[in-house]
Amino acid sequence: MEKLISSLFINRVVAAVLLLGDMTLLFWETIQSLFKRRLNFGDLVYQLYFIGLKSQSVVLITGAFTGMVLAAQTYLQFHKVRMDTATMAVVSVSMLSQLGPVLTGLMVAGRVGASIAAELGTMKVTEQIDALRTLATHPVDYLVLPRVVAATLALPVLTSEAIAIGIGSGFLVTTGLLKVDPTYTWANMLKYTVPNHLNAGLVKATFFGMIISLIACYKGTHCGEGAEGVGRATTEAVVTASISILISNFFLTLLLGRILEP
C-alpha cells in the first residue's frame, strides 16, 4: 500500500514537472514570436475585445459586491473597538493589493480560460491546427501569441476597474448605509493607502493574465481526442489557472513586499 501511494505521488510530481517544462517552452516560443514581430494587429484587437471588453460585466459585479461585503464585515468588527472610520482603509488596501487582482484573475480564468481551451481544443480535434502547419503558419504565431498578449494587457485594466468600483461601493456602504462619518473615513483611507499598493496589484494582474492565457492555450493545443478530450482540457485549464493564481499570489506578495516596501 505504501509503495502504491509513493508511486502515485512520484507520478504526480513527474507530471507536474513535465507540465511546467512544456509551459516554459511555450512561453519561450511566444516571446520569440513577439520579438520577431509576428503579431497580427487585427487578431490582437479581437482578443482584446473578447478577453477585456466582454469580461467587464462579471468583473465589475464581482468587484462591487466584494467591496460592499468587505466594508460591511470590517465595520462590524471595527465598530466593537470604536474604529469605524478606519473601515475604508482596510477595504482600499485589500482591494488594491489582494482582492482586486486575485478575484479578477479567477473570474477571467473561469470565463476566458475555459473559452480559449475549448476553442483551441476543438481546432486540434478537427485538425485545424495541423492544417495551419501545412500552410506554413506556426500555431504559436497565429493562435497563442494574440491571446497571451491580449490577456496580459487586459487583466491590469480589468483589475483597475474592479478596484475602483470595489472601493467606491464600499465607501457608499460605509458612509451611506452604515452612517460612518465620510470626512474621517476618506481621510483615514488616504492616510493608510499608498501608491505601491496599486502598483503591486497591477503587477500581479499582469502576471495573472499571462498565466491564464498560457495555461489555456497549452491545455487547448494538447487536449485529447474527441469531445471528451476537449471537455477535460477545458476543466483542467480553469482548475490549473485558478490554482496557479492562488499559489503565485503568495510568492508575488512576498516578492513585491520586499521590492515595493516604503
Structural class comes to: mainly alpha
What's the SSE pattern? Answer: HHHHHHHHH
Radius of gyration: 21 Å
Number of helices: 9
Strand content: under 5%
Helix proportion range = over 70%
SSE topology sketch:
Layout: H1 2-35, H2 41-51, H3 56-78, H4 87-125, H5 128-134, H6 139-177, H7 182-192, H8 195-221, H9 226-259
Helix pairs in contact: 1-6, 2-6, 3-4, 3-6, 4-6, 4-7, 4-8, 4-9, 6-8, 8-9
Commentary on this structure:
- The chain has 262 residues and is mostly helical.
- The chain has one domain.
- It contains nine helices and no strands.
- α1 crosses α6 (139-177) and α3 runs parallel beside α6 (139-177).
- It is elongated.
- The N and C termini lie far apart (53 Å).
- The mean pLDDT is 88.
